[in-house]
Amino acid sequence: MINEEKLIWMYQTMYRIRLFEESMLEQTFKGNSMGVTHPSDGQEAVPTGICAHLTDKDWIGSTHRGHGHCIAKGLETDKMMAEIMGKFTGNCKGKGGSMHIADFSKGMLGANAIVGASIPLAVGAALTAKYQGKEKESIGVAFFGDGASSQGVLHESMNLASIWKLPVIFACENNQYAEATPSWYAVSVEDIADRAASYNIPGVVVDGMDVFEVYEAAGEAVKRAREGKGPTLLELKTYRYHGHFHADQTEKYRKIEEEKAWRKRDCILSFEKKVTDQKLISKTKLLSIRKEIEEEIGKAVDFGLSSPLPPEETLYDDVYVNYPNDLRGLR
Amino acid sequence: MINEEKLIWMYQTMYRIRLFEESMLEQTFKGNSMGVTHPSDGQEAVPTGICAHLTDKDWIGSTHRGHGHCIAKGLETDKMMAEIMGKFTGNCKGKGGSMHIADFSKGMLGANAIVGASIPLAVGAALTAKYQGKEKESIGVAFFGDGASSQGVLHESMNLASIWKLPVIFACENNQYAEATPSWYAVSVEDIADRAASYNIPGVVVDGMDVFEVYEAAGEAVKRAREGKGPTLLELKTYRYHGHFHADQTEKYRKIEEEKAWRKRDCILSFEKKVTDQKLISKTKLLSIRKEIEEEIGKAVDFGLSSPLPPEETLYDDVYVNYPNDLRGLR
Amino acid sequence: MDKKNKLGPGFDVPGKEIRYRDAFNNTLREELEYDKNVFIVGEDISGGFDKETKEPLDAWGGPFAATKGLVQDFGVNRIMDAPISEAGFVGAAIGAALTGLRPVVDLMYFDFTTIAFDQLLSNAAKSRYMFGGQTKVPLTLFARSGGGTGHAAQHSSAFYSILAHIPGLKVVVPSDAYSVKGLLSAAIRDDDPVFVVNDKKVINMTSFVPDENYQIELGKGRYLKRGEDITLVGMSYSSVVCLEASEKLEKLGISAEVVDLLSVSPLDHEIIIESVKKTNRIVIVDEDNPIASIASEVAAIVSDKAFDYLDAPVKRVTAPHTPVPYSKGLEDVYVPDSNDVVSTVKSILGN
Amino acid sequence: MDKKNKLGPGFDVPGKEIRYRDAFNNTLREELEYDKNVFIVGEDISGGFDKETKEPLDAWGGPFAATKGLVQDFGVNRIMDAPISEAGFVGAAIGAALTGLRPVVDLMYFDFTTIAFDQLLSNAAKSRYMFGGQTKVPLTLFARSGGGTGHAAQHSSAFYSILAHIPGLKVVVPSDAYSVKGLLSAAIRDDDPVFVVNDKKVINMTSFVPDENYQIELGKGRYLKRGEDITLVGMSYSSVVCLEASEKLEKLGISAEVVDLLSVSPLDHEIIIESVKKTNRIVIVDEDNPIASIASEVAAIVSDKAFDYLDAPVKRVTAPHTPVPYSKGLEDVYVPDSNDVVSTVKSILGN
Ligand SMILES: Cc1ncc(C[n+]2csc(CCOP(=O)(O)OP(=O)(O)O)c2C)c(N)n1
Ligand SMILES: Cc1ncc(C[n+]2csc(CCOP(=O)(O)OP(=O)(O)O)c2C)c(N)n1
Ligand SMILES: [Mg+2]
Ligand SMILES: [Mg+2]
Fold first, then answer.
1. For residue B7, what are the CA distances in angstroms to B20, B55, B138?
2. Which residue is catalytic, options D31, D43, D151, D155?
3. Cα–Cα dist D259/D239, whole Å
4. In the predicted structure, residue C9 carries a pLDDT above the cut 70
5. β-strands C206-210, C15-19: how paired?
6. What pLDDT does residue C2 have?
7. Which domains does chain A have, with CATH numbers?
8. What percent of chain A shows pLDDT beyond 70?
9. Is the predicted pLDDT of residue B73 greater than 80, yes or no?
10. What is the spatial distance between Cα C283 and Cα C313, in angstroms, rounded to a whole number?
């Protein structure tokens, strides 16, 4: 049984992600963020159910669609919002933006905008843990999508992790699409989880809309990793409610009925139903949590909006720890 | 039943490869070839059994250990020997050497010294065939090793070939080692053939020391490809008799008993036994074939030795079809 | 962004003012019609398939809609959506090029070139040479480069210098709708592998484009403006910057000649040297990072071949030696602009 | 090949004349002892395992025996044999560097850099910057470069210019046993990603190496020879070529100064400019391909920063713009040699 504190954390986390993404989209459309943003609402149960097992000493690698991973790993929403707005108070001082939010103090290795590229980083974090004999307290989790499953570096990473028995979890969020490309077109196998057999590791198909299922499957995988038994591949079937990026129009490549069917199984709604049905948390409590989160996200937006842009000279900071040549280039 | 002509071709081919590699090694040690050479003796049954089904219109991609593939695909041994000796009469005018022998007129896409890198080329050749509606007469075969099976590009290629249903065969020559690294160390699965399941294509473990088994398994795969049913993964268990490259000392990483056990199942000896036992080819005929081949290889060596080196100016030829700038660089 | 781009030559032929992206799309269409061996492969270049009918939906029509509308007319065999596996499908495209087709690869963002880099460098660039001229590699690749659009470090690279460095590859850097039409058509018809770099900042600009089909010779630059006092060399978006700078300089009484490279490999040495022999001064403007760049190469060429004509230090105006930052304020400083060019010109003219 | 290499400085300290490869191996050992977070990963760097005991055999001890003997003393956790998956294990090494270790990666042949190229460019080089300085990437990589050994097009590359171009990476090009010891040690202790390029032609050469542990500052070149009439700039093996050329030139009455860059990123602008201010002439010798190369960069620097001191065209002596051919005769022409340097020097001195 999951204790109440954890349940509340899960609810907070899922709702925080949901609201963050919605506010973030709003801000993007208002022109308060630059470039492109990739909302993860709909998929909240995945990072929540997995990160529920992790501490700041565990490491996660993330993707272009990384806000949910960040939030579940404990990153502060105000700094995240500021980062997305390109502000100096953001996690990366405005240098990274939506696709590169990182917080090393929280075990968050950074979102990565190259599809697949963060997978071996999580393997490397697991290598560090094993090298230092700290698997019990530190494991790696690589979050990636169904689209990323076609990248060669995933194959390499799973093979490496298997032969080196590294404490790492490969968490494939199959949200059915990579941009507009459906996974039935691009992925040559029915369940990506089945590919685990190629590496002699467990592979589990998980309902990614149900945070309890995710929590359970992740628990097994985390246990295995911490016990030094090596990696696991989880395939979490899920759905993104919004388009691939803020301006993407989903109706061009998927049916509204499909979206509706997934929305029926919404992770937040089903969580609410379950905990209230089973009288684990009261409706009032849930409402008060919602309110707290709403306030938090509101403040995060204000924080982002009112924060300063990075000073121009910071353009040249933090390329190297130490580099004697002038980085300003030639002007 | 395999007809006599084909049987004789198989014997010629295997013996031609065997003798070519031995003579090639001799010439390498005499200093008549440059760089490194990777002999394939021991593995003759694999290219022979597969290429027995192919014509000049089919395409193969090959590796650093490519002489056997070349010979089985019909390349002339004299030009090959000349190429390895860096001579102008070689297949690539001395520009390629042992690791880059190619003959496009024979459907040989080129040996490739980057492990794994030729796999997608064979997929591309299969794509051309399908694009032109010529699958029946043109398929692709990607030869690669157990070591190459860890490269990401193999995963990508198998996924692509599967979803695009391309007429291609992935022929993994598992000769147990990648350099000194045993496949049990580097490959996370018992049988590489099992990875076919990840791509929803057939995967077959084949005794790569038995040309008849190879011929049969390849026959199925070729048929499938020509019928437009898509790719197959074959894993051919085999063994290289010599070191990884000419100067490699196998005793440093593998036991002589292991080698002896494989040599007992030598593809040429077992072929001889089978065809004479079953009275398919006479001993005299086999002997006369051997003699022919010995003469051919002797002549190939002489051809190589007596051929001229490429003229200096050819250094600048054939970089581009057409490039207006001076390629000579700056001297 | 949709501002008027005056780089077009203003032919006395039928044509119209269109956007770079539309010229690009039209040219792809023309080349698909011209040669049945031409096909395009890339991620979401049609974009999406109907679950029931399996028919392509053309939902995306490619990043920046480069291939929009093509799958309807040419079908899925010629407009091939690929999974996210750049090394795999670039390798397959090379294999197809080696066996008789003319593949065109959409690599989406220029940054993703890195994933297919081995296939490009070890196979596409070297096959012809290492096989002794037995084969050719009629492959075209394209992708979007450059900062200034808030795409951050991993979606804003402009390292065409790296590709130009590689023997066996050709690299073109169109600067307007007119040039991309001619260069893309020439690239696809060329028998060598050619990379077409599309700067994100120019793809929404418009210029005059003749209706007729034409090719621009690979390796030839052009004068965008004639002048006497200084040569400004640009490529892709930095040619736009040079032109803008030349207008500012004109107001200061400085007559700048603007050379637009169009190709960076092959590189038009003649036009650079010819111009410097006249103006005796040069500033090279390049959005790529500075070290071992095309800007360096042009500087090296003039300091060798036009040495006796140089009256001032050879100057480069480039991006800094840093990745591309996300935040708008920083990104604006990152990309060289006409003010940077003007102040550099003034410094060597002693103003 | 085992010819005496005179590049060593001849310290007045205990030491001996050893081969570059042995200095390299010794330094790895010293660094493994110095910091327990240092580990090495690569293909066959121990090489082979006993089937029954699963113990490492040290059969190969790494390509060119760079890591020979290390697995016995440091064990498989610190000398990690990897499957052939360069992108995967370079990525894992970056992940390890981001989380507290100091990985050293043997990439075998320099050519294979291409396969791990995305991990190097998008992750190793950019992490610190795009994450706003939150992290460092104390990663070292090494590989063997260069032609002249019959390894053909895919095993002979020397495109360190490409790596030097990338902001966030450092690149060193040692030219002898003395410099590789100091540079490798400095690289491993450095908190940024550093690529150590080992030319195959120098690894069997010997020079004097002090017994003591020392570091050579990254980004500092050195004078191999002082002279008056011309500056020859070399890097890695081309420094050997420059030295040889300087001896030939001496016999012709020409006094050449030889600058050995040692690092190409950071690059020692001061030493180049200082030397050119004295000699007023420069020839840059580089085995990399010419376009957008380090040779171009050095030429660009002097034509800007030392323009007023130049009395002759800036000359580069480089490999041609071709892949590396296999045949010995061709390969010998491919690699720039001292005769190429001498004739270029004579051409600008008007002899
Ligand atoms: C190497 C690479 N190729 C292509 C892209 C462009 N791109 C960004 S996200 C994406 C789809 C990724 O799909 P998936 O892995 O399923 O993640 P999702 O977007 O569904 O979360 C693509 C193709 C990229 N960023 N990196
Ligand atoms: C990308 C790459 N990495 C490493 C090497 C060095 N190398 C050459 S052959 C080889 C082993 C290949 O093993 P396998 O694929 O089993 O083929 P085999 O040599 O056994 O025929 C290695 C590591 C290479 N050539 N290319
Ligand atoms: Mg997806
Ligand atoms: Mg093998």
1. 20, 16, 23
2. D155
3. 8
4. no
5. antiparallel
6. 31
7. 4-308 (3.40.50.970)
8. 99
9. yes
10. 9
**Best residue among B69, B115, B245 to mutate for probing ligand 2, ranked by most atoms within 8 Å of CB:** B115
Ligand 3 midpoint to CA A62 (Å) = 13
B275: amino acid identity, one letter: V
Q: How far is the CA of B28 from the centre of ligand 3 (A)?
A: 52
CB contact under 8 A, B319 and D289: no
Answer whether A142's CB lies under 8 Å from A123's CB: yes
Taking the complete model, does pTM exceed 0.90, yes or no?
yes
Nearest of D181, D179, D313, D315 to residue D245 by alpha carbon: D315
- Cβ within 8 Å, pair C312-D307: yes
Residue C10 has pLDDT above 80, yes or no: no
Cβ-proximal residues to A256 (8 Å cutoff; 6+ apart), any chain: none
What distances in angstroms separate CA C341 from CA A312, B92, C1, one per listed residue?
Answer: 19, 49, 21
Reply yes or no on whether the pLDDT at A270 is more than 70: yes
Q: Residue B35: its pLDDT value, please?
A: 81
CA of C63 to the centre of ligand 1 (A): 12
Segments making up each domain of chain C, as ranges: 14-210, 222-349
| Contact across the interface for C83 and B163, Cβ inside 8 Å | yes
Q: Which CATH number fits domain C14-210: 3.40.605.10, 3.10.290.10, 3.40.50.970, 2.60.210.10?
A: 3.40.50.970
Q: How far apart are CA D288 and CA D281, in angstroms?
A: 21
Q: Distance between CA atoms of C32 and A203, rounded to whole angstroms?
A: 44
Identify the bridge partners of residue C317 per DSSP, sorted by sequence position: C285
Please tell me the distance from the alpha carbon of residue A129 to that of residue A137, in angstroms, as a whole number.
8
DSSP-derived pairing of the beta strands C256-260 and C222-225: antiparallel
How confident is the model at residue C83, as a pLDDT?
A: 98
Residues B183-225 pLDDT 10s: 999 999 999 999 999 999 999 999 999 999 999 999 999 999 9
Nearest alpha carbon to residue B90 among B27, B144, B33: B33
**Cross-strand pairs, D172:** D196, D263
Rg (CA), chain A: 20
SS3 for B16-58 is HHHHHHHHHHHHHHCCCCCCCCCCCCCCCHHHHHHHCCCCCCC
Q: Tokens 């992935």 — which residue?
A: B170
* Residue carrying structure tokens 């040079």: C242
Query: Distance between CA atoms of A79 and A77, rounded to whole angstroms?
Result: 6
Strand partners, C265: C171
Determine the pLDDT at residue C351: 60
Question: In whole angstroms, what is the distance from residue A139 CA to residue A123 CA?
Answer: 9
State the Cα angle at B255 between B251 and B261, rounded to 5°. Answer: 125
Per-residue pLDDT of chain D (351 residues; tens, 9 = 90+): 233 444 445 557 899 999 999 999 999 999 999 999 999 999 999 999 999 999 999 999 999 999 999 999 999 999 999 999 999 999 999 999 999 999 999 999 999 999 999 999 999 999 999 999 999 999 999 999 999 999 999 999 999 999 999 999 999 999 999 999 999 999 999 999 999 999 999 999 999 999 999 999 999 999 999 999 999 999 999 999 999 999 999 999 999 999 999 999 999 999 999 999 999 999 999 999 999 999 999 999 999 999 999 999 999 999 999 999 999 999 999 999 999 999 999 999 986
Alpha-carbon dihedral angle through residues B161, B166, B170, B171, given to the nearest 10 degrees: 180
CATH number of D222-349: 3.40.50.920
Chain B contact probe: residue of C129, C268, C298 with most B CBs at under 10 A: C129
Angle at D23 between CA D17 and CA D24, to 5 degrees: 160
For C145, phi and psi rounded to 5 degrees? -120, 170
